[in-house]
Amino acid sequence: MRTISSKRGEVLITTPLQLFGSLLLYCRPKQTRFPSEDSTAMAKKDRAVDSDKVWVSLITNLNYLPGILTLNYCLRKVNSKYPLVALYTDSFPESGRAALAARGIPSQPVPFLAPSKSTDYTDDPRFNDCWTKLAIFSLTEYDRVVQLDSDMLVLRNMDELMDLDLDAPSVSATGNTKTSPRVFAASHACVCNPLKRSHYPTNWIPENCAFTSQHNDPDLAQTEGADPSFGLGKLNSGLLVVNPSQTLYEQIVECMESRGSEFLFPDQDLLAELYQGRWVALPYVYNALKTLRSPGIHDAIWRDDQVKNVHFILSPKPWDEIGADGEWKGKQESHKWWIDMNRSRIESERDQGIH
């Protein structure tokens, strides 16, 4: 048995890691035993909520608590039929768990994931916890999991993602681009590098961005994603639609351990590499990166009245712009959307006696 070590402890892997041969050199899926129906049934008994389909969001510290509380609130506001489950690591304090419980948000622990050797994320410390999002593939107690980053704002019901056609786990675990082209679903990453970050790859330019390819048909961009193979073939892991599978999880963890140090954008680079050509590209409206709306970026396709879910990538987050007096000090219009929803949440909680 091999373990993956990190500065937060060790993560136990349920199968030995084979770190040799062409399989892992190119980070391609390994065919392993698929879990039995009995093991899946046992897992369902231990789930945090009695639902086969759930939204989940990872939280590892109190900095993102306002985000996940408002995320849950807006899911309820748009009348989603499905519960949000907060996934937390051991770094998330008891006070945070109490805040979740006070609002009726179910939660369950997940292990902190990281490869033994990883990229130095000094320039982007936000990525230190991102590997752990890959734990959603292990949640076999649920039939469908839709992962949402806690810095998101759901504006319109998107329950249809719970019924999106994906390959069955038994197929995706042993398939290829022909037999299993629908392992999971996600929206594209924007590779324009609009903030001109010096540590980003030099090929992150508008010409290689999937969203650029949709500028000539903005109507279609509202309902269809660009081809997953366009440009750099990158995805953004802020929203992931997954049919959990222990076998897929083992493939992912093995790839993380063998090649984790090569990925600048941890979890999303791994998924794009490991399942190249095998993921479903969702239209931008499900993971509307706030930068897309900026003039000269992808405002050609952005439509406020079509966006279902805004993703407040990068810093500052909307809640970081709230002063000590409780007033919002920011300027971005999209951030104001979150601020208004957060105020509505706080007022609702006050009426319920939640503080």
UniProtKB/TrEMBL annotation:
Domain of life: Eukaryota
Alphabetical list of Gene3D superfamilies matching this protein: Spore Coat Polysaccharide Biosynthesis Protein SpsA, Chain A
Keywords from the UniProt entry: Transferase
Protein name: Nucleotide-diphospho-sugar transferase
MF terms (GO), sorted A to Z: glycosyltransferase activity
InterPro entries: Glyco_trans_8, GNT1/Glycosyltrans_8, Nucleotide-diphossugar_trans
Entry annotated with the keyword Transcription: no
